[in-house]
């Protein structure tokens, strides 16, 4: 069951593309730190030898999804989104589900793979939605100063 965010906002303001990119850069540093710690642990477990291959890449992929899914589903915000006063939510203002987080994550990868077209799509979309907003039925909103 999806929980509704506690604050009631009369009108939701969509987050700008620039603010979204700023939050993504912040989160990219956190994901890189997770990858480095995982790499250090993997090398340590592998007697100091380099770790590579599909299993290791899959672990990094799953850890990256776990990072985003945890913050999106539990809090509605990653640390980068908190810094830039953004929140992901359903269209009706509720916490997103794990299924929506997975769809959002996978579609965002597709958006990047198409040279960012899925992100820039919001500049031409009537409802200012990216591909991952549309496919996951979510939105990124700008929080007002009273919101946490």
TrEMBL record:
Residues annotated as signal peptide: none
Keyword Transmembrane helix: yes
Compartments, record wording: Cell membrane
Bilayer-crossing regions: 21-43, 55-73, 101-124
Any single GO CC term annotated in Swiss-Prot or TrEMBL for this entry: plasma membrane
Superkingdom to which the source organism belongs: Bacteria
Official protein name in the record: RDD domain-containing protein
Topology relative to the membrane: Multi-pass membrane protein
UniProt entry tagged with the keyword Nucleotidyltransferase: no
Pfam families membership: RDD (PF06271)
Alphabetically ordered keywords of this record: Cell membrane, Membrane, Transmembrane, Transmembrane helix
Location of the RDD domain: 15-136
């Amino acid at each position: 069951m999806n929980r509704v965010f506690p604050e009631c906002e009369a009108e939701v303001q969509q987050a700008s593309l620039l603010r979204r990119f700023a939050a993504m850069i912040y989160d990219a540093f956190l994901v890189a730190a997770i990858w480095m710690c995982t790499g250090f642990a993997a090398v340590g477990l592998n007697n100091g030898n380099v770790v590579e291959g599909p299993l290791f890449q899959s672990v990094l992929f799953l850890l990256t999804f776990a990072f985003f899914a945890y913050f999106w589903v539990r809090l509605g915000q990653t640390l980068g989104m908190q810094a830039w006063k953004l929140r992901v939510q359903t269209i009706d203002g509720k916490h997103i589900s794990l299924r929506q987080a997975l769809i959002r994550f996978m579609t965002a990868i597709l958006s990047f793979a198409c040279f960012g077209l899925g992100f820039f799509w919001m500049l031409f979309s009537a409802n200012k939605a990216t591909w991952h907003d549309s496919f996951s039925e979510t939105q990124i909103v700008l929080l007002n100063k009273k919101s946490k």
